[in-house]
Write a structure and sequence with these properties.
binds iron/sulfur cluster, four-stranded parallel beta sheet, 15 helices, Rossmann fold
Length: 327
């Protein structure tokens, strides 16, 4: 089966309808045992040091994996993607650009989806069939999310994993669904977590390892993973265009806040961890987040794949102590 790489969540239904194997390049990069080496390979190839680690990782994964086709999100994701696309096209990789319209205009978004459908030679009927298949799995992942915050049965890391994996269904929807079913069956018989603090994690997924277990070892569990939950298309809307209009990640921070604010309240969150990536334009949005959220916010910055460093651990411990004292 031909593999199609992509740089962030795209209308996965189109790739599935085309009978291709979807590969979220971010997931391959961050779960690789060699993720640190991959960023170094990109630097050796010429990527500047002061460029986001995810971009370097995606580049190196594309080169090493031998994937020949890729969808690049040119609007609504990352300001570096256009240059990445140009560099990869020089290596003979076929690139299909996809843009989320900044104003969330339904006509423009439909146009973009149909352009992608033409590229992969699929019809609306095939795409709707793929959506029904994927929504079945997404519904089960939504249940994992509910069990996280409502019944306290799921760890922050598990919540992160299952939601983030929906971006490409780990390349094989049937196998992924079996994994989800198995987890759902096991998790219900666990004793619930007894946390001192309930946290929200907002921002792009962390590039460093071990954040969730470290928090849990200090009595604080993440019960809301903002972006990961968005990858899982949590609203289960019947219309595909509306689904990708409601998806918050590619649009402005105010649209994201319209999801973050009610969810942190519904999930009885005590405080927020805002993760920012070194050299990412999204760091600027931290100013707005701090102004708009009525909760304490700890901003953490990551650069390259690595275990949680000592400085970050000390900052987290200080934040959690402060929260515990306030209580
Ligand atoms: S973290 Fe920021 S700079 Fe890096 S790939 Fe994502 S959007 Fe781009």
């Amino acid at each position: 089966m031909n593999r199609v790489g992509f740089t962030t969540t795209i209308p996965l239904e189109v790739i599935i309808a085309a009978g291709k194997k979807p590969v979220d390049l971010n997931n391959v990069f961050i779960t690789s045992k060699d993720s640190h080496r991959l960023t170094e390979e990109a630097e050796i190839a010429g990527f500047p040091r002061n460029i986001c680690g995810w971009i370097k990782g995606i580049y190196a994964v594309m080169i090493e994996s031998g994937i020949k086709e890729m969808v690049a999100v040119t609007e609504g994701d990352c300001s570096y993607t256009k240059a990445l696309m140009e560099v990869l096209s020089l290596q003979g990789i076929t690139i299909a650009p996809f843009a989320y319209p900044h104003d969330r205009d339904a006509t423009s978004l439909r146009f973009e989806i149909e352009k992608l459908m033409r590229h992969f030679g699929v019809t609306w009927e095939e795409v709707r069939e793929a959506k029904a298949r994927l929504d079945g799995i997404r519904g089960k992942v939504r249940e994992i999310d509910r069990l996280t915050w409502e019944e306290n049965l799921v760890s922050g890391q598990e919540n992160h994993y299952f939601q983030v994996a929906t971006s490409d269904m780990n390349g094989d929807p049937d196998r992924f669904e079996a994994e989800v079913d198995d987890f759902l069956q096991k998790v219900r018989s666990r004793p619930p977590f007894k946390d001192r603090l309930r946290l929200a994690y907002i921002g792009v997924p962390p590039i460093f390892d071990g954040l969730y277990p470290f928090l849990e070892s200090h009595g604080a569990r993440v019960v809301f993973n903002e972006t990961q939950r968005q990858f899982a298309m949590p609203y289960l809307l019947p219309d595909l265009v509306e689904q990708y209009r409601s998806y918050t990640y590619p649009y402005d921070i105010f649209h994201r806040l319209s999801d973050i604010l009610p969810e942190t309240e519904r999930r009885r969150v005590d405080a927020v961890i805002h993760y920012v990536q070194s050299f990412c334009f999204r760091q600027i949005e931290d100013m707005i987040i701090r102004k708009k959220l009525p909760l304490p916010v700890l901003t953490l910055e990551g650069d390259k794949p690595s275990p949680l460093d000592a400085r970050t651990k000390i900052r987290i411990e200080g934040f959690l102590e402060m929260l515990a004292e306030r209580r």
